[in-house]
Amino acid sequence: MWNALKQPDGAALFDELKDLGFEVIALSRHLTPEQVEQLKPILRNIGQMPACAIQNFCPILPGTPQSEAENDKILLSSLDNDERQEAIRRTIETMELAVEMEITTVLLRLGAVDTYDRSYLMTEFYEYGEREFEAFSKKVTEATEWRKRKEAKHRDAVLRSLDELNEHALKMELCIAIENRPHYYQIPNFDEVGLFFDEFYGSPMRYWHDVGHAALQEKLGLCWSHKWLETYSEHLIGVTLHDLQELELYHPPGSGDLEWDELFAQIPSDAVKVIEIQHGETEAVIQARELCESLMNTESES
Prior knowledge:
The chain is of the alpha/beta class and 302 residues long. The chain has one domain: TIM Barrel (Alpha-Beta Barrel), CATH 3.20.20.150. Helix content is 48%, strand content 13%. α3 packs across α5 (134-172) and α9 (260-266) crosses α10. The longest helix has 39 residues, at 134-172.
């Protein structure tokens, strides 16, 4: 994510990250087919798991500008069966790419509930410093109640999609990881993670925790950030690390509002840890890596 939009050459993209001290990378949905093809021989030659995870959909969907990679064009939660099947097909293509590149984990974006985005009900109260007032809690309830009116059909669509993808993952010997999302209307919310694991107990499905997404949900009154790891640690396979500056995501760890020593105390030592940040100064990237490495060392020593 850090340099996919700034560096069109996949080989140079990897070299830039290696120069910053990273030996293992995660492949984001921002990568073009050309960048992926240029990365393939490099990652094959290095070996020893140079890529630890890949997001669906990677490479980027045809006709989608890199700057719009975060905006899902097709959803695994869609009530339109043709769209949902296309999302499954594209996800399977990502899974096939993972097998080809010897990547063991595919991160799934499961989609969203088709409801009008009422996030402003919460963000306006937060920005005016009124988070602790009863009116804020009422706005959170108002937004989530609108979600509840439509979520069942979309959740069922996701269950059908996961049923098919779990079968493919089992055959391919892959893990598919469901990730907590930043917004209340996205899938899964806190309870849906548990529902999906109950439904697919014993499958190759795992939980991937994004600390920034969890922190944003806490700031907006949706769910305490620590609950995700406490509840779903037995399914955890990886963690995404980025900082928040107020309500803005994807800042380098250590440059925002999060307490990183407390966070690392909650994260199991064997979880894969990926720094996912927006493009910025290289020095900030190096500082973020060194911070996370020092906290990992402290954790292992204790």
